[in-house]
Amino acid sequence: MRWNGHRVTALIAGLDMAHRIEQHFRGAVTDAAPEAATVAVDRLIDVCTFLRDEPELRFEFLSSLTAVDRLEYFEVAYHLTSIRLNQMTAIKVRADGRENPKAPSVTSVWPGANLQEREAYDLMGIVFEGHPDMRRVFLWDGFAGHPLRKDYLNLPGGQMPGLERFPGEPGEPLGGRG
Amino acid sequence: MNPVSLSAGVASVTIKSEPFVVNLGPQHPSTHGVFRLRLTLDGERIIDADMVMGYLHRSMEKLAEERTYTQNIPFTDRTDYLAAMTGNLAYVLAVEQLCGIEAPERAHWLRTIMCELQRMASHCMAIGIFANDCGAWQTPVMHMMRDREKVLDLFEMACGARLTLNYMRIGGVSRDVPPEFMPAARKFIKEMPKKLDEYEDLLLENEIIVARSRHIGVLTPEQAMAHSVSGPMLRASGVAWDIRKADPYAAYGKVDFDIAVGTNGDVYDRFVVRIAEMRQSIRILEQALEMIPEGPVHAQLPTATVQPIGQPVAPLAIRPPVGEAYGRIESPRGELGFYLVSDGSPAPFRFHIRSPSYINLTPLRLMSIGATVADAIVILGSVDIVVGEVDR
Predict the structure, then answer these.
(1) pTM > 0.80
(2) Which of B347, B354, B359 comes nearest A162 by C-beta?
(3) According to the CATH classification, is domain A7-150 in 3.30.460.80?
(4) CATH number of the domain where residue B270 is located
(5) pLDDT of residue B12
(6) Residue B141 CB neighbours (<10 A)
(7) Which residues does chain B have within 8 Å of residue A7's beta carbon, measured at their own beta carbons?
């Protein structure tokens, strides 16, 4: 129970996961944080297949796949669940370049990634290579740009979406937004 | 007269057919909202099914990046508008996980009670509309609307709203329930089992429903898990996975209930699992209404680093530390998750909704190919989508 300090689902932290991946795929982990291990783009499919099939891990259920615009790069976050062993973990992969960020599609490992990767392509503009049906899903085909990117609105002075402070908090005027 | 005699028995007769495209929706009673299913047919059989969605896309994930964490709570009512309480709860749990806030005990129990009431209201709609899809036009759905109405009356008593509730808060709930709530809730759960018996008598062994839904849209447990299907659809395939049991949140760890599981993974089992889940919700509510302690319903928030001028302080001013959190709960439709990334500012840097309605549609093409048009309607009905949550 989360509310008395203990979860029933075991959470495999990013550092532990990075260690386990590194034992099987030397050099595949590029970064490790407590939240998630970041995997090299070219090793992603091997690592995902390993996470799904390894008897101690058995992550057969892809809970969530989503992309984050980190300004310098794009990040795809995979939250994985093992129903058989009741455990969770998260891994990430970096897609470089703002023009044409690419990541391999994990639909061959988890078919459940199909619609989620299409959503990430539609809203964030990440092309998932090897996806069987890489089309927009919510927006129409002629739509310009990918609206969840931080620079989509092209605001004056390179302003990014977000709130620097609370409405009513002392400071410079918020410029009519927020 | 027909030039081709099919009963000739001399040689096999081939009838030439051409693919034919039928659009189900965006305005069609079976699509439960503005959702389009583009079916390619060969005769009566479906050879391809393409989903067209986005008609209700409001870009909540983008809007949320410019609003404070508290201001984002009403968005979660408007994704899954048939289950606003569970949407609220999933979001506030993710924020609480991000900030390390712990709600007081009474708030946990109130959340549990509200979510189970919401599950019953949502399943009432799912079952009623499903009966509609099977051809029991409007009568069963009115029976279920009658019972759902009682849940909405309870919600109105607790928070003043009936559909977009906005009841949960980061660190608790918005207010305690009035004294008349508990007796009214007890009366409701006392009456409800009889109503469920009535539903079962009316629908469960109904010949038309059985004929329309048995062995239709079958998903094996392996297929269901691989396609990230969750909720009653996954359990109907025989996978006993319920986040309320596997990873208890709110007060679910303190109540006793069973996971309703199906065997065949067909449309009929999804329908049976939903009725069985309503019985379990009654069990949870019976215990929760007895066990709920007295006490505060909102935690004293530790953060509040700034005090906005002329604003009431605590709940508005939440600045989570830099980091990220994935909070998930078992909504009536499945695993509802919120992935939040914080950069330390008052608004989320990234706000992603893992919506079960959307992801449960992944195997729709797989389930529909080879079926008939009439089957496609009940298959879509059994997924129990809410288009507000599909498109967000």
Answers:
(1) yes
(2) B347
(3) yes
(4) 1.10.645.10
(5) 67
(6) 20
(7) 247
